[in-house]
Amino acid sequence: MDKSHQRGQADRGMSNDILEKLNSIRALMDFAVPEEKMVEALDLLEIYSEDKIGLDVLHEFYSYLPEGKDDWIREIRLIGRQKGMFLLACITGLTCYIYLVSSEGIEFHGSFEEGIWDKEVLDFFGIENPKDRKGLDGPEKLYPIYEPIGRDAEICPACHAATGEFHELGCPVELCPWCGGQFVYCNCRFDKLELDTLSGEAELIKLEELLSEKGRIPYAPEQRPSFLDTDELQ
Ligand SMILES: [Zn+2]
Ligand SMILES: [Zn+2]
Q: 132-173: per-residue pLDDT in tens?
């Protein structure tokens, strides 16, 4: 069926992006990672080699070493996750840094010790300020290891919506409530808007209204592209 053909096209686009990012991180690591730590640093890169969020963090860190000194990421831990946004703690050879990451971009939030523990961010993730527990545990004790999303069935691999949450509009995994196909590929959006192309913001807003009226299909693990659950992907 042509549905599988279209899905294949989307995947190729994604893996090209990821390959490019991997190569770029490896090149940056040559300048940043102390020689004796390179093997361990590369092991961590391998763990996140198919995970967009993990790669974004590694790329950001190795592009702008926050202290301007040689350093490397030993571990990435998950402080909080909400609606496709991730608050991550990167434990490095020297210290620990906080990053806020989503498919929209990445924000540096300072070191774990002196971090910009913004109240809005803390409330959004429903977490307490770790500074309020001063003298207690470090990030290694407080937060679990961040698992690569490709392997976490409860998270949409493209837009990172959790099970039961709506996809970001435009996510290739979202199913069309009218025809059951992939919403970004079927023609329903044009049929419903009675248009040939979609250009303006107003049309997108109208489309979102029509979608909500019909009832959008939230993310569920069954929607995952099947290649993510096999070991063949390389
Ligand atoms: Zn999605
Ligand atoms: Zn459709």
A: 766 667 888 889 999 887 777 888 888 888 999 999 988 989
Structural domain harbouring 47: 2-151
Ligand 1 center from residue 110 Cα (angstroms): 29
| HEC letters along 210-230 | HHHHHCCCCCCHHHCCHHHHC
- Rounded distance from Cα 210 to ligand 2 centre (Å): 12
Residue 219 Cα to ligand 1 midpoint, Å, equals: 6
Residue 161 belongs to some domain of the structure: no
29 Cα: distance to centroid of ligand 1 (angstroms): 31
Tell me: the pLDDT tens digits for 36-69? 999 999 999 999 998 889 999 999 999 999 888 8
Domain-located, residue 60: yes
How remote is the CA of residue 178 from the centroid of ligand 2, in Å?
A: 5
Domain-embedded: residue 105: yes
Identify whether 110 is part of a domain: yes
